[in-house]
Amino acid sequence: MHLDMSKELEGQIDGDIRFHQKIFEKWRKEFNEERPHESLEMKTPGSIYKESEIEYEPGLVEFEYPKNYKSRNVNNRGFVNYKGKRYFIGNPFNGYNMGIQIDRNGQLNVWFGNNLLGYFDKESLLLVPEKNDIFKPRKKRKVLPMSWRISVTYVGRLDHWDLYLKIIEKVIYLTMKYEINFKPTSIKDLKKIDKQSQKNIINKIEKMSDNLAGDIKKLTNFTPEYRLRVGNYRVLFEIENNKIIIYKIKHRNDSYK
Length: 257
What we know:
Oligomer: single chain
Strand order of the largest sheet: 1-4-5-6-7
Strand content: 15-25%
Number of helices: 6
Number of strands: 12
Structural class: alpha+beta
Shape: globular
Order of helices and strands: HHHEEEEEEEHEHHEEEE
Largest sheet: 5 strands, antiparallel
Distance between the termini: 55 Å
Number of domains: 3
Radius of gyration: 22 Å
Helix content: 10-25%
């Protein structure tokens, strides 16, 4: 089921998260009710599925971390407060507690349960994703591999958070995607800049949508809170949920006036 989901859905859908959910619901209905499966004697998962009699008690999971880790909760805007600074980690983790591990070089490694997500950049105050395989801070007991005969399961309705969890289990880290919004003032600023610089700025702004890539810094006592440096120009923006809102695009001599 996960392989089918990966091949048919992962990275194949354009649009916002609501559109993603709509496409997934259509795929789920087809998988459960229309596709016959050989391992189920050509029956559909929905035709043999039975609801569990055990009542589900919803609630967030509270993770336990080693004693040398600092546990911090993610607020409803995707931020973590640590030693007087506010680091952005992402809205999928709202309400959950992350483990912050300080390594011998002073780097702030960020864990979600047994998964190393990356580290906090102390200048931009953003999460830099881990590029290598997920490391395990504690030993986990071994389990036997799943039987090949039990190869199809009924796909229950997944909300966005469940999708994130399943992706994290399968890949090294979920790359955050952001929607770019321009305020009218930023469009006016852009029109005043020469064409070549315009192209460079737009290119850098587009790259920001992929996990906030670029020369980004969190500003102190200034609004908007973030700046992107593009040569002699500064793009001033805010982060709201999964949106990057561009407020100003100014020459460095005029950007903070």
